[in-house]
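Appendix B, Record 12. Input sequence as logged:
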Amino acid sequence: MSNNPQDWPEPIIRVQSVSESCVDGIPGRYIKPPSDRPSTGTGFTLGDDANIPIIDLGGTEHDPVARASKYREILQACTEWGFFQIVNHGVDPDLMDKARETWRQFFHLPMELKQQHANSPKTYEGYGSRLGIEKGAILDWSDYYFLHYLPLSLKDHNKWPAQPPSCREVFDEYGRELVKLCGRLMKILSLNLGLEEDLLQNAFGGEDIGTCLRVNFYPKCPRPELTLGLSSHSDPGGMTLLLPDDQVPGLQVRKCNNWITVKPATHAFIVNIGDQIQVLSNAIYKSVEHRVIVNSDKERVSLALFYNPKSNIPIEPMKELVTQERPALYPPMTFDEYRLYIRLKGPRGKSQVESLKSPR
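Logged structural output:
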């Protein structure tokens, strides 16, 4: 298999088109093996009210006691869950709604307009419907749009949709606000590791980081119990800020071998730790498997912003966190090398970061 595939192994079929043409069944290409199906009952064993922690970032500016308590909540979420929701995070709720609805409009444009942006495995940038390049693979029930935001050398407005007309400016502003919010969170994550606030960001490459956006579109599915919108995986990058569809739950997070369906709080972002921060923290912070289920009555749109280390610097456990009792668990590897593995193989649970562990 070449390391730089130019094209998809078979013709791409848009899931949105499949969804519009199937009434009571779905093509075999989307039917998951029984062990991977979102079978009834899975995920509710911890009680229907189970949810990832919700943390209110408001009101900590001038109150050190409140701030310390919030930081403790975030530390607990990063070590026990790998996921949390944040509210009062400083991003304008109107901008969040506008970003989601602008992209929803894109997915409802005529197919020939969207097809002008079709992507290839070479960069993934553009309008896509599959991740790995394995021929005959079982596919996920979703279409997506993938874009680079940073570094500026990769940002190319020509790859962004020209329709709807507001798309480019809305996403420019949205990207700017979220990069700022990620910077704030990185300081908290660094302090919570007992490090100076800039150390984690510096390990990412300082200002010189990567950010990209994946907009997910999950069409209605007549047999949601047989498929997944996105297969189980942990995020390969640094940290993810997800703007979920607050009307339609779909994200499931693995906790103690149960799948918990996240209930999105209004105007919250869902934050999760990616593999690169698990490596840098020497596995104090966990990147956790998650997946997406689909819905028979409603489509769903979500926006995932990935905040990643500079792609060509070796990422390894930070020296301040390596001791005799807790030696370095991972060898150095650049994010570029890491990402290529994922692109060739597609989502595969936690197998990638676990396979890297240094032999004891």
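The mean pLDDT is 91.
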